[in-house]
Amino acid sequence: MVPSLELKRRMRDERGLTMVESARRVDHLRGRRARRRGADAARVALDHQVRQNTRASELCSQVMERLLDTPYDDPDMDDGGHTDANNPYDGHYFVSWNVETNQPIDSCKRVTVTVRWPNSFSLTSVRLVAVSPESTWN
């Protein structure tokens, strides 16, 4: 006597998964878990990068505000490149600025503040540019 198709299905359902089916499901779960770990690692790296960019932007803004409040003839506003005496901030942020006199017009100074990390020669940087006019309210 040959078992009917319905009987075969019922028998298969009762005995559970075969070894091959079990192995395939385990591999599938491992793959999902590995992909999730990879996504988590990428998310952590991106979060770290965002925090670094934010901190560098904060430092850049703070230094620029200080320089814009600095008198026009102060040594920090002399023509040329300057390096912050407090370097490195937080152990790995390096602040520098460049001052150009009579730029973009006469009686103004163009100030460019740059924050680099993790070292002073790094290509990773944040830059902010502002113009400081010579005060006429003496």
Write the layout of secondary structure elements.
Elements: H1 5-15, H2 19-68, E1 80-83, E2 94-101, E3 108-116, E4 125-133
Antiparallel strand pairs: 1-2, 2-3, 3-4
3D structure, described in words:
This protein starts with a helix and ends in a 5-residue tail after the last strand. It has two helices and four strands. The radius of gyration is 32 Å and the shape is rod-shaped. The mean pLDDT is 82. Helices cover 44% and strands 22% of the residues.
Q: Numbering strands along the chain, what is their spatial order in the largest sheet? A: 1-2-3-4
One letter per element, helices H and strands E, the order comes to HHEEEE
Shape: rod-shaped
- Biggest sheet character: 4 strands, antiparallel
The Cα radius of gyration reads 32 Å
Total of DSSP H or I helical runs spanning 4+ residues: 2
List how many beta strands DSSP finds: 4
Give the structural class.
alpha+beta
Q: Spans of 5+ residues with little confidence (pLDDT < 50)?
A: none
- Provide the helix percentage: 40-55%
What share of residues are in beta strands? Answer: 15-25%
What is the rounded distance between the termini? 114 Å
Features:
about 20% strand; alpha+beta; about 45% helix; about 140 residues; four-stranded antiparallel sheet
Outline of the structure:
The protein is of the alpha+beta class and 138 residues long. The protein has 2 helices and 4 strands, in the order ααββββ.
